[in-house]
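User: Predict the structure for this protein chain, please.
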Amino acid sequence: MSFTLRLTTPPVALALMAMLAGGTMLPARAANPPDQATPLALTAIMRDLGKDMQEVTDGIAREDWPAVAQRAARIADHPQPPLAEKLRILAFMGKDAGHFRDYDRQAHDAAQQLAQAAQRQDGAAAIAAFANVQGACLGCHQQFRQPFREHFHAPR
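Assistant: Here is the predicted structure, written as structure tokens:
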């Protein structure tokens, strides 16, 4: 399959074509130019997830199981970025996109387990599930946070 790209091809279209081709058409992450055109919705999603995580911590400490279950469900089913942003992120991540999705899946599954434990008022299981949520978040942040900041946000 052969095609010609014009310089006017939008980056989102390039990313979509790369995904459909089964690979990446972009150079390695370090070589990508900064993509700071539009602020990421993901930043606001992460900020809200951080607040939900703090509320879970507080709820566990107070044994407020309905609050823990509610926040855990919010964590498990957090909003997704718009499609265009997902394409920007996937294009940036290239071959590492699967790892990013794995961390999200791990956090989702652990948050669902947390919600179920809270509904049963099983404090030990809730704490264990919450530790798994935190582990998935930490792993993702350690691997991806700094490259995301360097690529998608203005220098600090």
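Confidence is low (pLDDT under 50) at residues 1-32.
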